[in-house]
Each structure stands twice: as structure tokens, then as C-alpha cells.
Amino acid sequence: MDAPSLRLSERFRPWHAAGLRYLFRPAAPSPAPTRQAAYEPTPANDPADPWPGSWKLYRSKLATPSRTVWTYADLGLDLGSRPDSQRRDLFRLIIHFLKWPKGSVTFWPVAAETDAGLEPDPERFWRGVAEARASVVIIFGRRALSMLFPEEIFAPRIFPARGLTIVVQPGPSDLLPDNRAAKKIVWDTLRSLNLG
Q1: Does 167 reside within a domain?
Q2: Which bin fits 104, alpha (ψ -120 to 50), beta or left (φ > 0)?
Q3: Cα 132 from Cα 137, distance rounded (Å)
């Protein structure tokens, strides 16, 4: 028996059963100095710390192993100091209705939150994908695709790269508030992956 799941509210139990852990969990209210300490920048070129600054926080939320890694351009904000409830709810519903087995999904940002805004870091992204031992990377949106594959033209599709299956889908801004055509593309593509 999974003792921590006994403390879950019934409305969160399906997501827990689907393998979600710590996704977009709101930070507990805390004094500003303590919160700032979590995002205190570490020099990006410090070879002694492969997970500087916000990456340390993101890595603590990376579920391993995971069959798929999901990313989009603003995920670094959603996992950091500025989560967006509409995006969170959108992805929770998608995962809930896919009914994939536990350990199928983890979220990993392609850009980290810094004092200057989001800063793309493809090298750390691919390092996290390797750590998750994923075989499929699902990229939501044009901006995220251009951060990882600048030479690729945006179009929803599946292609092989880096020994992985890359799935390109419309981004959260394309899906919200209720773009049914874009949601159908995502739904049909993700169901075709047959991880359930």
C-alpha cells in the first residue's frame, strides 16, 4: 500500500494513480527572502554544479524513470515562481484521460527561470531526458521546438532524433482556452503512442 496516497484528496487521487508527483504543486507561502534563495543564480559555467540555480529545483521534481518527457517553453515558470493554473489544469486533464500507466509522464523544462527571464538550455534539457531514461520527448509549441531544434519547421508530427522519438504538438497557448481542433490533434497523437 502507498501510505502517502492515503492523505490525498479524492480529486487528486486519479492523477496520483497515473504516476504524477509534484507537478505544478503550489509553493507554500513563505517570506520573500526564503523564496528568493531557491532561485539564487549559480554561475552557469560552474563545472562543479551540473544543476545550478533553478535547475536544482526542477531536478527535484523530475520523475525517474519515465517513459515520456513533456516540455513547453514556459514550463520553467510553471515549475518555478509563476505557475499558470490554466496550463496546469490543461495538462492534468490530458494525462488523466490518457490513462497511461504510472511512470509514463514527467515534465522537464527546456528553459530555466533566471533573473533576466527564461533562458533556454538545451544541454541541460537533454541531460534531464537521459536521467529520466525516456524514449519519447513530447514538445508542445513552436517556441519550445525552436529552442531544441532551431532548424526544424514547426508542424505537429513525429520524427526520430538523438535516439529518441520526438513528438511535436501544438503549444498550450494554441490549446487554450478551448481550441478543439488543436486539442484533437494532441489527443489523437498521444493516444496513438499507445503507452496505456
Answers
A1: yes
A2: alpha
A3: 11
Residue 25 lies in a domain: no
Q: The domain that contains 184 carries what CATH number?
A: 3.40.470.10
Domain with 186 in it: 65-196
The C-alpha atoms of residue 102 and residue 169 are separated, in whole angstroms, by 22
CB atoms within 10 A of CB 100: 20
Count of structural domains within the chain = 1
Q: Specify if 27 maps to a domain.
A: no
Pick the closest to residue 121 from 112, 108, 113, 129 (CA basis): 112
Tell me the pLDDT tens digit for each residue of 19-55. Answer: 666 555 444 444 443 333 333 444 445 566 789 989 9
CB 124 within 8 A of CB 112: yes
pLDDT digit string, tens, across residues 49-104: 789 989 999 999 999 999 999 999 999 999 998 899 999 999 999 999 999 999 99
